[in-house]
Amino acid sequence: MILTQCAVCATELGLSLGKKCGRCSTRYCGAECQKQHWEQRGHDKLCKLIKKAGGAEQYHADTKYTETVAVAAAACAEDTKGQTCYICGDDKEGLVRMCACRGTAGFAHVSCLAEQAKILVAEGEENNLGAKARTERWHRWDECSLCKQRYDGVVRCALSWGCWKTYVGRPETDEARRLAMSLLGNGLFDAEHYEEALSVRETELSMLHRIKAPEYNILCAQGNLAISYEWVDRNDEALRIRRDLYAGRLKQNGEEHKDTLIEANNLANLLFHLDRFEEVKSLSRKTMPVARRVLGEGHGLTLRILLSYGRVLYRDPDASPDDLREAVTTLEDTERIARRVLGGAHPFTLAVERNLRNARFALRAHETPPPGSA
């Protein structure tokens, strides 16, 4: 379940606290809030409707889907004017796009996209298709079937609610329900509903632990949760998870696995944000030679690790002249490799160049005697 708060006072109830309406399963912290909801907030009129829709979770998902479809259609209204849905051929209701399609391609109703995804996933389940085929079909929930690009922002959010409302009634051990919850968290985050995304991702991780999901799935959910904590400035919790993730990847995959190096870089970036510069340096010095040896110096992840290390060397307020010289040397090497691999106009190359200019400026400032000191 993702409804983990009292419907009246928003007290956090987790998975088992409080009480529920006996008919529709709406949750409350206690009898007082339940009574107030019934007598003063209209639950007496909604209760049967919620029960008929399938209960509080299903009703909530259906309602949010309707709301977010309207938001998505409004956001795309100017771009979709005069177009028709490529699935049904009609121009009724609001159309959306928000993918990489251009010209007259890619316009669709959210309802058509959702129905298409639902049918494809159902066929995969009924025909017992292999994992690769099921995954390809599942991507119809958040990826354009024409240009293969993931939908963005409010369109992705609307589709994620469509996905969740489709599978919310299944047992929590069901694969589609588990994937739908993950998709909902990502869709909410992409639409910048960070607190809602956080709540869903906390619930997802709790569910994965409860059903004893594979370690890989738990680590992925922890990574998403850490991102949510960072975006709402709950950095202590984010740091705890980032440390656990890095340790988990080390244990599961070893230091040379790409996933381990990714988590090391994620941890280093958060430590940098928290001004824990010595820890960043120590971690980067461990991972840089591994990334160079395993991935090669031109790999995108290796370049990001090198940039992180060069940046922390010159941004540290206690940087020594040797630190600043090492920062310049590291960033010069990184800029040279990035220019060769990615090109001079690539955003990453430009970011390295900015940091290199800053590092050179810091070194010059340190080496230039202050006026009147001679």
Strand residue percentage: under 5%
Helical fraction = 55-70%
By helix and strand content, what is the structural category? mainly alpha
Strand order of the largest sheet: 1-2
Kindly report the average pLDDT value.
90
What is the terminal separation in angstroms? 71 Å
What's the helix count?
15
Total number of strands: 2
Helix-strand topology string: EEHHHHHHHHHHHHHHH
Oligomer state of the chains in this structure: single chain
Task: Characterize the structure shown.
The protein has 374 residues and is mainly alpha-helical. The chain is 66% helix and 1% strand. α11 runs parallel beside α13 and α14 runs antiparallel to α15 (347-367). The relative contact order is 0.05. The mean pLDDT is 90.
Features:
mainly alpha, two-stranded antiparallel ribbon, 374 residues, 66% helix, globular
List the helices and strands and how they pair.
Layout: E1 19-20, E2 27-28, H1 31-40, H2 43-53, H3 56-80, H4 110-126, H5 131-138, H6 153-167, H7 175-190, H8 194-210, H9 215-231, H10 235-253, H11 258-273, H12 277-294, H13 300-315, H14 321-342, H15 347-367
What's the gist of this structure?
66% of the residues lie in helices and 1% in strands. The chain is mainly alpha-helical and 374 residues long.
